[in-house]
């Protein structure tokens, strides 16, 4: 039986990953977090539970360990105490936080990753899998890539410090694999949307849907303007979480960094799709979406080629954008009404 240690397991993606891990052959999931607030976990346990648990109940196989991944001594102590068989490393400072405090961003996103990898090397039994949450921010501006899609083999020219540190994390993971032979996966994520996504610059698409759902419950139209424009990838959070669970537990050997992709389109087209789906749900009177006059350009590439991960991990889910938007709007309306 597997024992999976998950950093950032109470976050948006982490909560879904934990739920899906518990649906596998997992004895326990140890969540390493600075906050033991189970809000996002309950959000997904409410949806379908993790197995035999009742509505809103957390699976007893979940354990919380309060720790900061930037504290190397604490990381070493908890890894040795827990002796995990698998590690999923989602804990990190997001792009806006890294821009505000670069030193802290480097300390957490690079130093914390290295501390975790070093601790894993000293486990009593060799780790069976290490999965690292990387980012499409490891690539450069879209203009650098003339083809229709960006492949894993294309040049890596991060446009900001967050991307530099995610690329550093990938390289630290590669060196870890070369030293230990532990199967290691890096997932290059793009924009994630859906219930639980409430932090980071690219949480804006989710906030737009929340505005409609909240307005429908309160009986008022709530305006929302996107703070950036250009092309963007839209990947439903349940799909992203499932990628982490699958790459942690499914058969795999070696080291690989994989692109992960949902659906890609212009921000303006996404807003029109949200409007269309909302109207079909009877929420059209509460739509007031647009792009801010001072909207910046989206820095990150979005036209990622995800062929490699679909070949290595067949059957990873991909929710149609229309379905993901409808699920999100419905869930946000339920939450606004206090239904769960």
TrEMBL record:
Residues 2-168 form the Ketoreductase domain. The lineage of its organism: Bacteria, Pseudomonadati, Planctomycetota, Planctomycetia, Planctomycetia incertae sedis. Belongs to the NAD(P)-dependent epimerase/dehydratase family. GO terms for molecular function: dTDP-glucose 4,6-dehydratase activity. It is an enzyme of class 4 (lyase). InterPro entries: Epimerase_deHydtase (IPR001509), KR_dom (IPR057326), NAD(P)-bd_dom_sf (IPR036291). This is dTDP-glucose 4,6-dehydratase. It comes from Saltatorellus ferox. Pfam families: Epimerase.
